[in-house]
Description:
The chain is of the alpha/beta class. It contains 12 helices and 20 strands. Strand 16 and strand 17 form a beta hairpin. The longest helix is centred in the middle third of the chain and has 23 residues, at 225-247.
Amino acid sequence: MRSLSFALLLAAPALAADPPAVSREFRGVWVATVANIDWPSKPGLPADEQKKELRAILDRCVELNLNAVVFQVRPMCDALYKSDLEPWSGFLTGTPGQDPGYDPLAYAVAESHKRGLELHCWINPYRAWHPSAKGEVPATHLVKKRPDLAKKYGKHHWLNPTHPEVQKHSLAVIVDVVKRYDIDGVHLDDYFYPYAEQDDDKKDIPFPDDDTWAAYQKGGGKLERDDWRRDAVNTFVKQMYEQVHAAKKWVKVGISPFGIWRPGHPTGIQGFDQYAKLYADAKLWLNEGWIDYWTPQLYWPIQQEPQSYPKLLAWWADENTKKRHLWPGNIPSRLGGTTKNWTDTEIADQIAATRKQAGAGGNVHFSMKALMKADGLGAKNLAAVYAEPAVVPASPWLGDDKPGPPAVVLVKGERPWFLLASRTATRFVARYPKGDGWVTKVVPVGDFAYGSLDLGFGFPERLIVTAYDRLGNESDPAEWKR
């Protein structure tokens, strides 16, 4: 057994030539499971192979200096986790309802945190069945159990957002995940009412909510039908925000709506009207602060004036009256294609534009598949702008008590390493001088509130460590000096 010696060093006053502040920026990526877009690569893989693929995704996130994964766990009233409310997803085994032999969400949470990554659960609140799904709909699925709630709509099945039992069920699913898993966030995307399906004559198919509309009118309701639909979605969003924080205050709530609220907002913007077509009053949710972070899907290039990335970003920033996080969505999946106005550096340029926009503090990228190849344009774009790690920005409206400073323990063995300790930390950031600059390393918290740092060489001249809690609050620094 090798001989170890320990030296305990507590927080000390900062010395001259201190490093710059740790970079604060949300750097997320969507990992889509619907239709096996990102993971697993195909249904029916053995559990060990699925785990291997997921670890490769998370390792790639670390290599690219990302700090958060938005992991889709409910693609269509199914579950990529053990649930008593909905059946196992067929995108795992190829057979809807079949147990994959492990809990993918529990595994994803543990492996993400082991790498210092946040894990946000991406949930579709209303989609019931996707046309890409294979196999029979299980008897435990809402399509079979409650066809009055999950109705056929074009090639899909969709929950009726105006049905009180739909709202109750989807909220129960979300709160169940929050209570049982150590997640960092809950995330909804742009699917509220569905994008319109068309019949054989290319005419939009009316959404099948005649039953609840008739009941509403019979009960004396006064709203017009479109406003009634929007009101139902608004109620769901507000209740979700309240119920998530009642369960766990530190779990962030995020929404990534379609990037345009309505055409003409701001002046000159053209495109799809989510307010009128998806019944999503996204501006209202942002204005009211029913979210902790806002990720409008700005999937257009900077030079495309009718959907200008910087103009839309500035407009959303102006609407952010509650000063929540603004982390726009980007789409590196479109790099290298033939779409007009997309340059090979478009995503790097968009991140640079985001950094220039007051009130914006990060980006989320769709999707992981576009980032897996080291020589791909997506990875190259991120490498150009994410040279150093960054810490997720703090959310002071959820709590601003900073953790105590960490203890730094030097462990002398075959080669020196450091043990970092803090009872309230979820990660540490360690910095040490190298050449004319400073190296920054994010150190995850392991068992017993410790983190370990092996620099792979001898002692640095100085080592400065800060601890961060679940809300991103930073401690005073602790410093070791040779």
